[in-house]
Amino acid sequence: LFQFVTMKTLSSLLLLIIVGTTNVINALQQPRQQAIVVGSGPVGVATSLILATNHNYDVTLLESSPASSTQTKYDPTKAFLYNVNGRGQRLTKMFPEMHQRMVERSVISKGFGGTKLTIVPADPEEPIPEQKMNVPAAADKEDNNDDNKSMPSGEKAGNVGFWIPRHEMVKLMVEEIEEHNQRGLGGTITLCTGQECVSVVPRTTKDGEGVMVVVTTKDASSSQEISTNEYNANLVIGADGMNSKVRQCLHNNPPGTWSSNCVKSSKFQPKTYTSPASFLRIKVLQLPPQFEIPDADGKPPLKTFSQDIYAIRSVNTGPRTFLSLGLLPMKDNEAVRPTNIITRPDHGIWKITNGKSMREYFQQAFPRFNFQENGLISNQEWDRFAKAEGTRFPPCQYSPGLAVWDESGRSGVALVGDSIHAFSPDIGQGVNAGLMDVVCLDRALSGLDDVESSGKEVDATATDKSKKKQTTSTTLEASLQRYQKQHAPEIAALIRLARFGAPYQYKQSHRADRALRLVWTANVAMRLLLNKVTFGVIQPPCIILSQNEDLTFRQVMRRADRTTALLKTIVLAGLTLWARRRFGLALFRALP
Fold this sequence. Notes:
Blueprint: H1 2-29, E1 34-38, H2 42-54, E2 58-63, E3 81-84, H3 86-92, H4 96-105, E4 107-109, E5 116-120, E6 132-133, E7 161-165, H5 166-183, E8 189-193, E9 195-204, E10 211-219, E11 229-233, E12 235-238, H6 245-252, E13 271-273, E14 281-287, E15 292-293, E16 302-303, E17 309-313, E18 324-327, E19 337-343, H7 355-365, H8 379-387, E20 391-392, E21 396-398, E22 403-405, E23 412-415, E24 421-422, H9 430-445, H10 464-467, H11 476-500, H12 511-533, H13 542-545, H14 553-590
Parallel strand pairs: 1-2, 1-12, 2-8, 5-17, 12-23
Antiparallel strand pairs: 3-7, 4-7, 5-6, 9-10, 10-11, 13-21, 14-19, 14-20, 15-16, 17-18, 21-24, 22-23
Helix pairs in contact: 2-5, 2-9, 3-9, 4-5, 7-8, 9-11, 11-14
């Protein structure tokens, strides 16, 4: 009897193994869903990783730049530095090895804290003040959280930012893609360069049983009429920047192209607002690594360190001549130090087009430095800088439309990053907001809500049971509907924050700018004072609230709006009381 039972049990186990193995083989043999991501910046690469890793898509990553113009190499025209805060880290922490590489290659700071700030006076006879910490460091205390390893003592991971150059950010993401493809788990990611998006339309498959989204591209390196390429996918993601071609295609699609219950094509026309920082011009001047700043007579020069912040003032202070050099922290002490020149478009610097004249202009503006021929900066760099057109800060804009899908609900298009929101970098949320778009899209595709019922955003690394709210449907149509409905209000709030957060930090030098900067500064100071006096009843200004990564942008702006409404009520009540005392009695006597 025992042998019979044992044989029966073994037979059952063997049958289960065979059935299980067959199911796995069948699952592996089934064709994967196809996805296309247009744009290979940090947000586009992050989207590709999410789709391939979490959703088993085979991803084709389309980039309009040629293969020779790699985004993983330093480029002075794109010498931006990101501060990846807690919002952006919700994406990076999904890939622990990539996150660790970011920690190792970046300068860790708490806001600007943890780094030294040096303000260099314009007058060469004035001594350079002693370097100081920009923000006092938090009190040291024991913290056993693994996320805090390699970080300054006393700083929690959630409040720590990482200063990292743009090309390094893209590089560590590309390395994660290579490792993902080598592991062979999930979908594959294929990069196609030199492919400029021309159109995005749904098309019925040849067998007539389904609908695919067709992305048509052309060779971006040639201006001549050439043949086009077509890429088919179930899901297309537009991560191609503020002038997104994917978004333009959705806006120009005729009625009936997509499902009747999608947002209208007119919703993909960006809503545009002008802030005081809009349209400022910017270009990069490259300083040598560890360059020295001459001090007053008798004092040794100050040798710069890559992980410190420097603000170098010029002697020019006029409305169209004011100039200042700012250097943000970076890890590599042997790398070139890019400094951003940010001015109004009518500044005199934009009229200089040859290196010799530019060098002479800077020598006059910054007499502390040796900008003579063969001095601190090479003649070749002066020529490059003088001829560079630079770029302009965009207006604050956002697209009310985020996604569309076809009538069958099995294919669609979604937008992320600058394709749905663009603004000047003064609030420090550009790359972080883009990475949060990817996190929210990931949650939507997983059948999860963007925000908990309490309104607090969910930690991307939390468990499903404790932190995530499961919804009933995970079809592509339902997922894109969820992304559109839940995330669009967050984008609108983000743009409001960008308009009013910190638009005067570039010290715009027009007289009107200076007057309005005083008003803005007074408003910020008043709110901070009232916040202290009322023990937090009155909220601090929105730019301070936005540093709390546990708050959504909607919550930030709602709190700021409540303070604004309260202040308006107080002012109106005061004026009413004054008018009643001043004119009320006379008006009463004049009545019949």
